[in-house]
Amino acid sequence: MPELPEVETTRLGVSPHITHRRLLNWEIRTRQLRWPVEVPEILMGRVVHKVSRRAKYLLIHFDIGALILHLGMSGSLRIVGQGANAGKHDHVDLNFDDEKILRLNDPRKFGSILYQSYPVEQHWLLEKLGPEPLSTDFSMDYLFDKRCNRKLAIKNFIMDGQLVVGVGNIYASEALFLAGIRPNIRAGSISKTRCGILVESIKHTLSEAIKAGGTTLRDFTNSEGKPGYFGQSLSVYGREGQPCYQCQTLIKVVKTGQRSSYYCPSCQK
Q1: Catalytic residue chosen out of the listed positions 34, 38, 259, 265
Q2: Which of 25, 149, 226, 266 is exposed most, by the fewest CB atoms within 10 A?
Q3: Catalytic: which of 2, 5, 133, 183?
């Protein structure tokens, strides 16, 4: 699944092409994705003011509301020219006045396009989300207060979107490695100092992934059709049985919840 850095990379890629452009019309080839596609008629002829991101959702803002896009398990967005042939999994085209098309490709049909008038944050997909991990709202004090008496494994805890958004499986494993914290220890046992280290590790890991263009996943390509490169720099994720880059101890994997969690038994305590 595209995680926060992949979604942010996509936002940075498509935003210059559609911001300040007028939406002329659209073509919906598949109306039922995860939910029925919503592109209301009132958007026809309106100008895109900006493209933002909230968690793993892309928001295309108009003067009266916004389209909320999610890429699902393997979806992607492309900017293509008018007349570009649509493939089997190209489900939705948004056609703009500069002869550019924003095209949603989604082989597994777990993505979505929904509409919400302002205030957009009241949409049911967004209203209960926690703070952005790269914002000042996500801090040592915030994490320390939230983790009080929680028996949940710390990895599952930081992947809870109501606590903090966008820390998916790959980046949770990487941030915990950077912080020196094992993924399966109880969240409530983490000291305030270690909470601060973990917060900074999450911010650093996500920032570096965004700079690198997102993780190289089998299904992900960015808006120009090129893969991301951060996957080449992963320290623990997917490296079970391989030596740790720092201490040469073999990387192990444990199950936390229903997910595989990779860690170094020497570097992480």
Answers
A1: 259
A2: 149
A3: 2
**Percent residues over pLDDT 70 in the chain:** 93
Q: What is d(CA 41, CA 266) in angstroms, rounded to the nearest whole number?
A: 58
Residue with the two structure tokens 């499986």: 169
Burial class (CB in 10 A: 0-12, 13-18, 19+), 50: middle
Q: Which phi-psi region, left, alpha or beta, contains residue 149 (left: φ > 0; alpha: ψ -120 to 50)?
A: left
Radius of gyration for the alpha carbons in the chain, expressed in angstroms and rounded = 20
Give me the helices (H) in the chain, please: 4-18, 140-146, 154-158, 169-179, 192-212
Instruction: Judge whether 203 counts as a catalytic residue.
Output: no
Which is the catalytic residue, given 3, 6, 8, 174? 3
Q: Once rounded to an integer, what is the mean pLDDT over residues 110-126? A: 97
* Domains assigned to the chain: 4-122 (3.20.190.10), 140-263 (1.10.8.50)
For residue 107, indicate whether it is catalytic: no
Q: What is the pLDDT of residues 66-87, one digit of tens each?
A: 999 999 988 989 999 998 999 9
Among 56, 147, 155, 239, the active-site one is: 56
Measured in whole angstroms, how far is the alpha carbon of residue 141 from the centre of its chain? 24
**Interatomic CA distance for residues 224 and 76, integer angstroms:** 10
Whether 259 is a known active-site residue: answer yes
> Catalytic residue at 3?
yes
Backbone angles phi, psi at 115, to 5 degrees: -120, 145
Q: Which pLDDT tens digit goes with each residue over 210-245?
A: 888 765 444 444 555 554 545 558 999 999 999 999
